[in-house]
């Protein structure tokens, strides 16, 4: 679908092409998430592990492409990539908790933090879209008003969360569901999840780069 263009000159600096390869890979990761969750609930762990490895590969690939080819880098991608990770992580953690492979309190912590971050992203979007704010403007991917800058601890936490998913999926496949190392990874994930949530609260505005201020009234 073609991107909508507004006649106001104030919107021209916000325009960018959202149809980049990294963004499409992020969308594929989002679409894969519910299917993966269904497979886990059905206890098809071999196939789940293989598809999760594929999803992880797309995460690495979209970052590599965006860094290597500047034309493939977008402000939308700075929000879409972590959003895809959070949707994938949330669905997988709930599914793995249902399968009794990840404790419920840890899943609750992860989801609570992610809901807070997603709400913050929507708030930033609302505050940076030039007035009058309409649903068409708000959800138009062609106009990006802010770029997200994840904190270092958040990047580390995302990697640890993915490692726990991989380890949990592999546990029934390789018969180590009662491993003390896996349980230690639960606590490490909990600590880094809480720390990453605090880092966003602490640094606040430093994690967001506004690309275009509101147009003068």
From TrEMBL:
<keyword id="KW-0496">Mitochondrion</keyword>
<feature type="transmembrane region" description="Helical">
    <location>
        <begin position="48"/>
        <end position="67"/>
    </location>
</feature>
<comment type="function">
    <text>Catalyzes the synthesis of cardiolipin (CL) (diphosphatidylglycerol) by specifically transferring a phosphatidyl group from CDP-diacylglycerol to phosphatidylglycerol (PG). CL is a key phospholipid in mitochondrial membranes and plays important roles in maintaining the functional integrity and dynamics of mitochondria under both optimal and stress conditions.</text>
</comment>
<dbReference type="GO" id="GO:0032049">
    <property type="term" value="P:cardiolipin biosynthetic process"/>
</dbReference>
<feature type="transmembrane region" description="Helical">
    <location>
        <begin position="180"/>
        <end position="201"/>
    </location>
</feature>
<dbReference type="GO" id="GO:0008444">
    <property type="term" value="F:CDP-diacylglycerol-glycerol-3-phosphate 3-phosphatidyltransferase activity"/>
</dbReference>
<keyword id="KW-1208">Phospholipid metabolism</keyword>
<keyword id="KW-1133">Transmembrane helix</keyword>
<protein>
    <recommendedName>
        <fullName>Cardiolipin synthase (CMP-forming)</fullName>
        <ecNumber>2.7.8.41</ecNumber>
    </recommendedName>
</protein>
<feature type="transmembrane region" description="Helical">
    <location>
        <begin position="156"/>
        <end position="174"/>
    </location>
</feature>
<dbReference type="InterPro" id="IPR004570">
    <property type="entry name" value="Phosphatidylglycerol_P_synth"/>
</dbReference>
<feature type="transmembrane region" description="Helical">
    <location>
        <begin position="20"/>
        <end position="41"/>
    </location>
</feature>
<keyword id="KW-0808">Transferase</keyword>
<dbReference type="InterPro" id="IPR043130">
    <property type="entry name" value="CDP-OH_PTrfase_TM_dom"/>
</dbReference>
<dbReference type="GO" id="GO:0005743">
    <property type="term" value="C:mitochondrial inner membrane"/>
</dbReference>
<dbReference type="Pfam" id="PF01066">
    <property type="entry name" value="CDP-OH_P_transf"/>
</dbReference>
<dbReference type="InterPro" id="IPR050324">
    <property type="entry name" value="CDP-alcohol_PTase-I"/>
</dbReference>
<keyword id="KW-0444">Lipid biosynthesis</keyword>
<dbReference type="InterPro" id="IPR000462">
    <property type="entry name" value="CDP-OH_P_trans"/>
</dbReference>
<keyword id="KW-0443">Lipid metabolism</keyword>
<keyword id="KW-0812">Transmembrane</keyword>
<dbReference type="GO" id="GO:0043337">
    <property type="term" value="F:cardiolipin synthase (CMP-forming)"/>
</dbReference>
<feature type="transmembrane region" description="Helical">
    <location>
        <begin position="87"/>
        <end position="112"/>
    </location>
</feature>
<keyword id="KW-0472">Membrane</keyword>
<keyword id="KW-0594">Phospholipid biosynthesis</keyword>
<keyword id="KW-0999">Mitochondrion inner membrane</keyword>
<comment type="similarity">
    <text>Belongs to the CDP-alcohol phosphatidyltransferase class-I family.</text>
</comment>
